[in-house]
Amino acid sequence: MGIRQEQWIPAVTGKNYSMTPLLTPLAAHKGAFSVVTGLDAGGGVSHAHGPVAVLTGSNETKIGENVRPNGTSIDQIVSDTLGKGTAFRSIETEIVPPFDVGRSSGLYDYTSWRNGTSPNPTEWDPRKLWKRLAELPGAKPASKGTAPDVQGSYLDAVQQDARDLMLKVSASDKARLEQHMEHVRAIELRLGVGQPTKAMTGGSLPSDPSAVVTAKTIQQPFNNSKMLTKLMAELIAYALVTDATRVFTLVYSRPNYHLPIREIPGVADLHAATHNEPRGTPSVVKGVAFIMERLADTLSVFAQTPDGPGRSLLDNLTMIATSDLSHGYDHTNADYPILVAGGARGKLRSGQHVRVTGDRKVTRVGATLLSALGRPPGFGSGGFATSNTIPELLA
Amino acid sequence: MRQFMKFKGCLLATLFFAACNASNQGGAANEDGPSGDDVGNPGTGGDGIDVPAPTPLKDFKPAPGRLALLTSEQYRSSLSDLLGIDAAGIEVPGDVPLYGFTTIGASSISVSAKTGDTLDRSVRTEVGKVLADVSKREALTGCSANVEKPQCVDEYIGSFGRRAFRRPLDAQEFKRLRGLFDTVVTKTSDRWMGLQMVTTAILASPKFLYFSEQGEGSTDGTGNKNLSAFEFAARLSFWLSGSTPDNELLDAAENGDLQNSEGIARQTNRLLSSPRAAAALERFFGELYSLPIDHIEKDPTLFPFVAKHPELAASMRSETSTMATTLALDVNGDIGELLDANYSFVDPLLAEFYGVKDRRDPSGKVQWPPGSPRSGLMTHAGILAVLSKETSTIPTRRGRFVRERILCQHIPDPPPNVAMQLPEATGGEVKTQRQRLDVHNIKSECKSCHELLDPVGLVLERFDAAGLYRDKENGVSIDTSGELDGFRVADARELGKALRSHPDALPCVFRQAYRYATGHLETAGEEPLVQQLGEYLAKDAQGSFRKAITALAQHPGFRSVAQ
Predict the structure, then answer these.
(1) pLDDT tens sequence across A213-226
(2) Percent of chain B scored above 70 by pLDDT?
(3) How far from B153 is each of A49, B143, B208, B351, CA to CA, in Å?
(4) A46 to chain B: which residues are within 8 Å by CB?
(5) Do B366 and B352 contact (CB within 8 A), yes or no?
(6) How close is the nearest chain A Cα to the Cα of B313, in Å?
(7) pLDDT band at B499 (very low <50, low <70, confident <90, very high)
(8) How far apart are the C-alpha atoms of A288 and B354, rounded to whole Å?
(9) Can you tell me the ipTM of this complex?
(10) Which of A54, A63, B340, B533 is most open to solvent, judged by the fewest CB atoms within 10 Å of its CB?
(11) Cα–Cα distance, A249 to A236 (Å, whole number)
C-alpha cells in the first residue's frame, strides 16, 4: 500500500541520518540496514507492477484477472545456485493472507516466481512449516522405523514415468514436467535417499507452534500478526542456520489487499485509508509503522540467532524489504521504498541512508545484491536492465 | 453489438466476437472440421437426453493437446475414490487459478516446489495410513493371506494401476512396478511394504497427478486427431463427476462405447444422474461466481451477526450453488432463471440473517413475497458480500462482475498512476456511493469504463457490504435507478429481468462451462463450436444447461485435438 514519502525519507544521507516517523520502529536496528531512496519503479498495473519491477526486474503481463511477471524473481535467481543441495530450494511465507484464501482472488497472489507461469505459493500456517522442518531426516534423533532407502524407493519409478510422459507432450508441457521432477529430486534429498542422514546442526528446532496457534488464529491473521510474524521468523531463522534452506520470502500482506489491522485501533482498512485520507494522516502512518514494527521483530529474531562464531544470522544474510507501491494515494512508483538489511557476511555496508542519483532504475538494488554475492552485477530486462550497482552499499 | 459501440474510450469487447458467426451454423461440412465417425448421426441414445445431432461446423479448429495437473479437488476426490478413504482429511496443495478457473491454471502452470512437496507428502501419508490398517489394506488390494502369492500382487498392480492411470498399464509400466515390489520385499521381507511402495509409486506418478489429452491414431487429413477413448473418459469424468473415472466408465472406454453418440449419451447421463455431478457443478459455479468458501470477513462493529457466525459463509455459498446446480441438472430447467428467480434456497442460518420467517420447504426453497427486493443471483448475499469491502460496498466492482462473469464482456483495468481520490461516503458532505461516484467526480480518462460499470452496480446499492437489505445510507434514501445496455432499470428486480433477457447471458454461461471443462480459454478456432452450442442453450434448449452440456459431450468437436 506504499508509504508516505514525507514521513519516510530521511532529511540527510549517510550514517548520521535521523529516523523519520515511518522508520522509527526500526531504530533499534539502525546499524543493520540501509535506507535506499530516489529509485523509480516505473509504471504498470497498479499495486502489481512495483514488486514485479523490484524483484524480477521486468514488466508484467496481465492475463485475465492475473498478473504475471516477464522474468524470474531475484530469490529464485539466487536459489538456482545457492539453493543446490539444500532440502528446500527456497521457502515462501506470508503473515496475513487474504480472507477466504481458498477462493480465487486472481490478482497479486504471488511474490516469488520461477518464471511467468510458475509462481511459488506462500505458507501462512507456521504449524505446517514447522512440520516440514521437523520431518527432515536430520531434525530429530534417528527414530526406529523403516529404513529411509525403502521409504524413497518409489521415486525412481516416478522419474521414469515422467520421462515416458515427456515423450508424448508438447515442448512447453515437457518443461513443466521437468520442473516438477526437479522438486521430486529434492524430495529424495529430504527423504535421505541414497545417503546417510546428516544431523542438522547450527540451531535447535523451535517448539511446535500448535501449542499457541489454532485454526482460528490462522483464519484471523489480522488479529494475530504480531505473534505469527515472530513464529514465522523463528522458523525461517532455524531453516537458515541449519542450512535446510538458503533463500526465503516473507510477505506481510499481498499487494492491493484491503488489509484490516485490528491489533491497533483505528485502521479498519489500510488500503482504503491510503486512498481516502489526505496526505500524511494518522491512520496511514499508524498502519505502515505497524508493519515496520513487524519487520523490526523479524530483524530482532535474526539478530538474536547465532550463526557462526561471534556472528548473528543478521550479520550473514541480506534482505530486500519493499512495498507494492511507492505512494498509495495516487498509485505512483517514483521514489520507491527500499530497505536493504543484513551484512551479507561483510559484503554489504549497512546503517546509512543512500539517495541514488543518475541511473534511478529500481533494478540497481538487485544488481547490487547479485554483485555482493559474487555474481556479475547485471539485473533486469528490457527497460529495466542495468549493470549499475549502488556502490555505497558494497563493502 | 450496439452496446459495444456506444462507448468509445472503454475498449469493451467480448473476448471473441460473439454473434458475428451465427450464419456459420448449418453451413457445409468443412475440411477443417473433425471427421468423427458419427457426424450427422442422431445424437441420442437409449439412456441419453434428447439433443439434436451435431451440426457440422464451418472453420472449426480444435485446440492443441494439453497436460493438466489435477486440481486440488480433483486430486482429493480421486485419492478418496482410489484408496477408499474419507476425502475431508486429505491434504491438498491449493490451486493457481487463471481466468477465474482452477482448471485453466492447472493446464498451464508449472508446479512449485511447495505444491510438488505437498502432493508427495499427501500421497505418502494417505497410502501409509491405508496400508497400516489391516481391513483397509485388504479392501484396497484384494489380498489378505494370499499376499504371499504372486498372482494377487500382479492383479492388484494391474487393476489399481488401470484406475489410477485411467487406462490399462503397458507392459513396461507393469514390469517397473513389479520390479519395485520385488526390490522392497528383498530388502524388508515385508510384502505389505512392497504393496505400499507400489501404491505410492502409482499415486505419486505424474501419470496419475496429470491427465494428458494428446489424441491417438493418425490424423484425419486436416491435422486433427481424436482423443483416445480413455482420454475422453477422463475428460468426461473430471468434468461431470469431479473425480477419476470409475470402472464402468473405463470399461465403456475399453469396449469402444465412447466412440459413438449413443454410448457417450448413456455415460454422460449416468454421470449427470449421480450425486457427484451436483458436487462437480457446484465447484464450477463456485469458481464462476467467486462464491465464498469458508470465510466472509466484515467489520465486526457494523456486522456483528457475520462476526458471530463464521459458518454464514458456507450458507451463503450454498444459496447460490444449490440454485445453480438444481437448475443446471434439471433437464427441463432454465439456467436463465438464476438471474431473476423470485425464490431462493436458504438454510436456517441464512434465513435468520435475511429475516426470512416462512421456511417450510425441506429443501430450503423460499419464495420471495411480492414486493421483495431480492430477485436472482445478483441479490444473493454471498455474491454481494464478496464484491464489497469490509465496511462498504463497491458498486464499480459489482458492475464489473455483471459485465465479465455474467455477460462475458471484458473491461480493462484502471490506467496506472490514477489517483483514486473520490471522497469517502461517510455522512459528511458525501453521504451515498452514488454521490461519491457522481460523473463530476470521475476523471475524464476513467469515465468511459465507469459509465459501463457504475449504472449497473449502483442498482444493487440497497444491499450493503454483507448483502443485507437497507433503504438508506447515512440517512439518505438510496436511489437504485440505473442502466444496462440501453435498458433503464429501477431496481435489482428489474436488473435481474434485464440480465435474463440479455442476448449474451445464456451463451456466456455456456462459454464459461466450456472453459472450465476444457481447461483453457477457447481459441478462435473453437469459436464456432462455442457459439453454436451457446446459441443452442439460449434457443432450442430453452435454457436447459443439462441439454447443452450433453450436446457438448456428444459433439465430435469436443473430442477432437489439433496436432
Answers:
(1) 999 999 889 999 99
(2) 89
(3) 56, 7, 20, 55
(4) 413-414, 416-418
(5) no
(6) 9
(7) very high
(8) 38
(9) 0.90
(10) A63
(11) 9
